[in-house]
Amino acid sequence: MFQKIDKVLLAIILALLAFGFLIFVSASLGLLARDGASFQSVAGRQLLAIALGCGAAFGALLFNYAKFKRYALLILIVSVFGALLVYIPQIGLEHGGAKRWISVAGFSIQPSEFLKLGLVIFAAAFMSAMKERIETIKWGLVPLLLLIAVAAAILLPQPDTDSFVVIAFTLLCMYIAAGGNKKHIAGVIILGVLVLSIYVISKPYLIERFFTFLNPARDPQGSGWQIQQSLIAIGSGGFLGRGFGQSVQKFSYLPEPIDDSIFAVMSEEFGFVGSSTLVLLFLLFILRGLRNASRAPDLFGRLLCIGIVILIGSGAFMNIAAMLGIIPLSGLPLPFVSHGGTALIAALFSAGILLSISRYQRS
Question: What is this structure's pTM?
């Protein structure tokens, strides 16, 4: 069984995980110096998440991926129910004005990470079942819009606009891969841009984020602080970087050095070479994942593989692009790297599904 696993993809995932933990350990030093937390508590939680994630990945690897299709509706219902728990008082946790977490046995869990995977699994199952009618409005376009609407109804009020954009983009890519009608695809893109634009205009903090993106120097002590400090960190890394643990920005300047800003910390310490290596690893992950999708034995496996690859890959590049000032700042974690147990476990479980699909690939 294990001889059939895509060992190249496995090596890429392990490299991302190892490199990610190395970066996390260094970035966490800035948090410890500022907040006085113990290294054991911060690193210990990350190691626990890695252990649980690896266990989940191994379980997914042993599980025949085709069975996910049978339980797709149940998975979607459970993931939606879990994501709605954030709105229940005494269960949902609020941080920084956002309600995205629930408290379970002293740990904070972000259910939206599993909601995204649940939507991908259900979309792959439904689209593969409707492959002969996917170009119709009733069995193609409407179900796609309903799934996007479910994500919007749960994620936007939290608010978690960035996760919504990622899952909506992922579902659209899956629809295109399933053979969706080209006119419907164009219509969804136009409608999505219009609706998202209206939503952004209605939210002052999103407008501020957009204007900060256009001119990061307009409010250097306020909304422009994070992107300014991020660019300083990345620029000061030079070609080879300051060296492991030598970042200056992580101690007093970069907010969330182990979360949103971890790519900036890594770029400062490992320079252009290190940041390019990480980008290359994510690019190889995407290309190898899509290669496996092209060799999947059935349409469900192909769509599931594409969905997971786009979900992880788009999240990674949105985080990196935001730190480079290419797109407005996002609150997305960097997969396999950032602090956040739920995101890490969900990413590793998703990677396990990819490896499970690779066991059955056509030669």
Answer: 0.94
